[in-house]
Predict the structure.
Amino acid sequence: QVQLVESGGGLVQPGGSLRLSCVASGISSTFYAMGWYRQAPGKQRELVARSSPGGSRNYADSVKGRFTMSRDNAKNTVFLQMNSLKPEDTAVYYCYAQPGGTTHWGRGTQVTVSS
């Protein structure tokens, strides 16, 4: 059974940084897409960052230059380094993985940017 567990969320002041982690278990595939979505209150879930099976990365325009996604394939772990955080980054951040074309989701971690 595939499980994704996120960690690292919390409360941070504007301009601050957080690092999110997501550990995947139960995946036998070696190469698969992983990434992060977020959902703010009253808004649709939106893609934040994506790592393709080949390792290329894509970012939402709203986070380019501030967020960096990295991946440790040996540990089935992805990270999201978030710098220069803004109040509009406040959301629940969800990790996902797509082994074999099936999308699996974590339960999410809350990120709140507020003074």
